[in-house]
Please model this.
Amino acid sequence: MREVQYKYYHIDIRDIWAYERDVFLSDRSVGRSFITSLLKKVQYRIIYNKREALDYKKELNEFTYTQYYNLYMGGNFIKHIEIFYFFYKEKMYTYKNEILADVREDDFEYWFALKLRQYETGLKHIDTFLHYQLRLYFKKDKEKMYDFLVLLLRQYEGMYFTDRLSLTVEEFMEEHLIDQEPLSTVPPKESIQKPLRSSHKQREFQGHHKTLVLEKGLKDSSYYSKHAITFARVNRLLKEAKFIDRKTNEKHFTAIFTTVQIHPSNRIQWIGTIKELQWFVKYLVYDTKKVIHLRNDIWVATLHCFVNKKGEAYTDAQLRGAKGENLDRKFQLEQILTEL
Model:
């Protein structure tokens, strides 16, 4: 199987076919229906994209041409995949020529998705790849690309994209396609918490829930009352481990995992490090999927649920960029969260 061309950023149907062809031939027990459909799409693009049929006398000698023709017309599916030529109405075509997908075409997102999934084995190259697409196909229009990627993930996640690839794309969207600014919401007068120091506006919340809603709770509204003891135990363990303030109210703690909007005065006071709060959220959302997928609202939702040990709000920039390597604390935190 050939190596992935991570630095070839074009949405080139020739490149996509070569990759998918090699994947299929390396493990013929999977993907038969997919490769059949893809083969038809590729051949259609070659024939109808003003690609002239080959002059086989220049490309191949007559003997080789006859061999390929007989192999292809013999109806052997694997041979159709293996050879670099195909025949249509007695004319010969090749898969070797560049065919760039056009952003104006209806199936552009399909070819984009197939190119993107090549980076499953080279996640570190995704940022550069997507920056290239932002300049070339989206003309530096961040909003347009953001909307495109949202629909792309929705359409192909679980089909062509693994969770870790989707997560890498979402992190790119969050870091490069959204203008991140600190939160501007100031707690009401009755709140015991200090007002925010910044007057900059935070981007608008785009989802339905501003909390860390548990998947099980979303499906069963009685889940929280049935597991009140569990929530009380997790609350206690987080206090003992000095992740949350020892005065944290059990009802307020449980509330951050429900669909109920949190009053600013009821946000949980996190006394651990910012990195530990980041671990807390990522473990629940990404690692275990106990919390619903918040997409790019993950840190905005976190801001609605937590304040720091001084009672001041975090910024999403702080949460996204948090640093720390105390893996013992990370392990301790995750052990507690397994209870949920």
About this structure: The beta strands are 85-88, 91-94, 268-269, 306-307. The chain has three domains: 13-94, 108-177, 215-337. The chain is about 50% helix and 5% strand.
